[in-house]
Amino acid sequence: MKNLSKILKSTAMVMLLVFAASCSDDDNDDPVIIVEEDNIVEATQKTSSLSSLVSALAKADESANNDLITALSSEGPFTVLAPTNDAFSSLLARLDGFDTLDDFNNEQLQDLLATILKYHVVSGAAVGSGDLTEGQIITTLQGETLVVNKASGVTFTDAAGEMATVTTADVETENGIVHLIDKVLIPQEALDALSGVLLTSITDLAISVPSLSILVDALIAADGDLPTVLASDGPFTVFAPTNDAFAAFLEANDFAALSDIPTEVLTQVLLNHVVAGTNLSSDLATGYVSSLSTAGPNDANLSMFINIEDGVVINGVSTVTAADNKAINGVVHIVDAVIGLPNIVDHAVANPNLTSLVGALTADGNTTFTTLLSNSETDFTVFAPLNSAFDDFTNPSDNDINTILANHVISGAAANAASLSNTYFNTAATNVDGDNLSIYVNVDDGVKLNGTSSVAAADIVATNGIIHAVDMVIDLPSVVTFATADPNFSSLVGALTAEGQPDYVSILSTATGTDPAPFTVFAPTNGAFANLAAVPSGDVLTAVLNHHVIAGANIVSGDLSSGLVSPATLEGDTLTFTIDGDGNVTITDGSGNAEIGIIAVDVQANNGVIHAIDTVMIPDTTN
């Protein structure tokens, strides 16, 4: 005959039978209904909260080796500890592969069920709760013992060290006495047979595995009572580092012992091994999930990158060596390395879709970016081009690749997708004057950058910022880039590209260092054009548009002062600036129109700067 535990494992894999539920949700406090001369079985059958016990007795008796119903209907006397329906529901939840009592569907399993039931019966005595004493040892019909505890109510402790509490005591019947209890008690014989099938909490599972003893010590040492958390309902998926993994982690970080790790750091490291939900190995897919660690910016949950291309690898550093250790509140996957708290560089290196980016960042031994993006004192938002984006990028303007890469980094802010709006940020890239380039974010339809590059995967959270993977490399912007990307300038773009106008797109795309770049552009918004009685055309429109552009100068807001007269515009007239006591800047145009407001300053392109204005400026038409 096969070993019982093997049969149980095999049965659990194939028996997912659908029957009417054996465990009802009736209240466990229903009293046992006694009719004169009812025996224990008859009384139990009349009590709705014990219907699962009745079903269990019948199921066990399907084996020719058992006749429990007849035995408990006999003269006795007996003392019966009667598990309620909820108690049986809890037991079935702990049995891997058992959905109902009907899954005890062969003789060996039915005999096992009989063993468990007989552990709840004392033969030859009807023992009332008042007759029990603290620490009393009771021998059951099954042959093993239970321990009585009366410190807080009446409880019985089984072979697993778990306690069942009496919820209704001293129900007298014709052939004995019944005490209703809130848990099914398990004898050692059943514990041995159910090895690998009877699920415990994640915490108890870890305690039972010798190679996870340091993990258990770490959980105890951390903040937040993690052993209790991982014994709660969950469910959780835990990637559990072995003792060897912890030893390597301690050595790599110059810690002599767990006690040397700051408690806050230890807590976040441990939480970074926990994911909400039950994720068996068959459920895992290559991609990002959020761990329970809140070590991200503004207490955001850190991202965890799971790669299943060759086994299961976490964040590129930790491999699952023993998967799918099921617990009653989730699953444990044992891993060979501690999963540290990833910064932006760690995430970039771990993701095979970002290898081209990593290669570009570190080309020729360059450490500028790896040093910058490993900085734990500053938060970053990084728009990370995918490998396919680099494959498609030809660098048409022959811009410096390091400046292009810096143009994908916002320093000083960790912006998740939900916080983004139609706005400008400054990037880490600079023009020849040292001014930080701008990047325009538009969220009207997804998240688009400078009108060309879209976010393909958002909110990869690291300890020092957030990564958004993008589908195109973001080249260095010209003033045309922002004019066409920002919908607030659509009327201006329409005027610049109107029939009969010069090729402003080519002119304003001229690279810095090539005449007439750089440019300072005072860009009227759509509202400014709407306020015109009529939009001019032909040569008049050309003169008006030229009056908004100063060539050969990158004039930022810091260069302006009250009374300053600008260099000549492309039209030939100058502009005069006024700054009031509150720092508001207004412009007087060539025709003397004053109080022209600058409503947004310093949209910095690589070949110039744009300032948005609320009025279309008119040149002097008399000269």
Automatic annotation (TrEMBL):
SMART domains: FAS1. Gene3D superfamilies: FAS1 domain. Residues 37-185, 199-339, 341-474, 476-617 form the FAS1 domain. InterPro entries: Adhesion/Biosynth-related (IPR050904), FAS1_dom_sf (IPR036378), FAS1_domain (IPR000782). Residues 1-20 form the signal peptide. Keywords: Signal. GO terms for cellular component: extracellular space. It comes from the Bacteria. The keyword Signal applies. PANTHER family: FI19380P1, PERIOSTIN-RELATED. This is Uncaracterized surface protein containing fasciclin (FAS1) repeats.
